[in-house]
């Protein structure tokens, strides 16, 4: 079925300086919205940003049927808007929706919705080197019924907000061995709202103890590293880039995948495998240079300065010649159109 997107543009346009504001605080002037009812998508529209009216019985408010994505649009050096890896984000969105019993959005509708919205609000794509426009597609269950069931009605929406550096400084993280983020067979590899809500309490405890984020471990042994906060965890030790392998419990990060591809193309050995905190301790205690960082769309490459394991803090390598910054720079150059997009990751508007 063809989905024509109607566009109702806001007369007054006002790009706000958002650089000093927290991530995601200011939306752009427009948003996309489409309704799912009777097994089909209807009323696909780009409209001025506005609040929603929802029944207090809407299922998303009670049982957590919500899924989201996060991608970024960049201004290339030659003045075009580039939406980075939209197809990979779409793939993951569809997998998350499937896991949460939510209907797929046709790829054409997803792509056109984001294209039209980002084009209309193109003035909001920061021109600064460290800026991008964060694009947040999401779906919520809207059927109004308090009984526990799979919703038959949904809203698919896209909103945008200018984004700058997510973390202002290198992170101090704590290896978490009491609480778990996800267990095999659960929803850990789906980008559903509940995964984030469930992480708040252990993260809050870590913050009270002086850390920025937790480094999650597996639910069976509490020993193998999973991911960190809102990011995949990566390590560069002995000239090898190591990251936990994809499983049912960690997110298939797009930045993770991009960095692994870039590293492999540079001739760096890349290992996707289990990595235990014991292995990290051995590396630190042998005096090895350990680079640790989070990789995510919002955070990009977030250097980790301190890893607390039990009562001991270990210091990671964060000097300017660290490999993580080289990988970050190469990713930046592809997204800004400075170097060739050999992997066809850029969607140029
Ligand atoms: C992202 O990096 O896109 C995320 O989803 C992290 C966060 C802003 C929730």
Characterise this structure.
The chain has 349 residues and is of the alpha+beta class. It has 2 domains: 6-164, D-amino Acid Aminotransferase, Chain A, domain 1; 171-335, D-amino Acid Aminotransferase, subunit A, domain 2 (D-amino Acid Aminotransferase, Chain A, domain 2, Alpha-Beta Barrel). It is built from 8 helices and 18 strands. It has helices at residues 60-63, 86-99, 107-120, 193-197, 200-208, 254-265, 277-285, 323-335, and strands spanning 6-7, 30-37, 40-48, 66-68, 71-75, 81-84, 132-141, 154-163, 171-176, 213-217, 225-228, 231-237, 240-243, 269-272, 290-296, 300-309, 312-315, 346-348. The strands form 2 sheets. Strands 1, 2, 3, 4, 5, 6, 7, 8 and 18 form a 9-stranded mixed sheet that branches. The longest helix is centred in the first third of the chain and has 14 residues, at 86-99. The model has no long low-confidence stretch (mean pLDDT 95). 2-OXO-4-methylpentanoic acid is lined by residues 70, 230, 296-298.
């Amino acid at each position: 079925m063809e989905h024509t997107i109607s566009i109702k543009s806001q007369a007054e346009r006002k790009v706000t300086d958002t650089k000093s504001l927290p991530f995601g605080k200011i939306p752009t002037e427009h948003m996309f919205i489409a309704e799912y009812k009777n097994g089909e998508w209807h009323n696909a529209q780009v409209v001025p940003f506005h609040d929603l009216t929802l029944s207090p019985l809407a299922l998303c408010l009670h049982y957590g049927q919500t899924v989201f994505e996060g991608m970024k649009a960049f201004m290339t050096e030659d003045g075009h808007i580039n939406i980075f890896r939209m197809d990979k984000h779409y793939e993951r969105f569809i997998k998350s929706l499937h896991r949460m019993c939510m209907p797929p959005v046709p790829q054409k509708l997803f792509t056109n919705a984001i294209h039209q919205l980002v084009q209309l609000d193109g003035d909001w794509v920061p021109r600064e080197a460290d800026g991008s426009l964060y694009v947040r597609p999401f779906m919520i269950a809207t059927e109004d019924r308090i009984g526990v069931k799979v919703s038959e009605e949904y809203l698919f929406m896209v909103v945008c907000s200018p984004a700058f550096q997510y973390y202002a400084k290198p992170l101090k993280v704590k290896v978490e061995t009491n609480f778990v983020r996800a267990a095999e067979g659960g929803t850990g590899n789906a980008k559903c709202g509940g995964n984030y809500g469930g992480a708040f309490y252990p993260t809050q405890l870590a913050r009270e103890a002086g850390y920025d984020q937790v480094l999650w471990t597996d639910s069976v042994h509490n020993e193998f590293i999973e991911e960190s906060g809102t990011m995949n965890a990566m390590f560069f030790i002995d000239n090898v880039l190591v990251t936990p392998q994809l499983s049912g419990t960690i997110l298939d990060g797009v930045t993770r995948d991009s960095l692994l591809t870039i590293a492999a193309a540079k001739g760096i050995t890349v290992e996707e495998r289990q990595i235990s905190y014991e292995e990290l301790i051995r590396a630190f205690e042998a005096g090895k240079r350990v680079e640790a960082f989070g990789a995510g769309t919002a955070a990009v490459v977030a250097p980790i300065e301190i890893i607390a394991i039990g009562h001991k803090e270990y210091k990671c390598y964060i000097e300017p010649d660290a490999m993580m910054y080289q990988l970050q720079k190469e990713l930046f150059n592809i997204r800004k159109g400075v170097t060739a997009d050999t992997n066809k990751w850029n969607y140029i508007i």
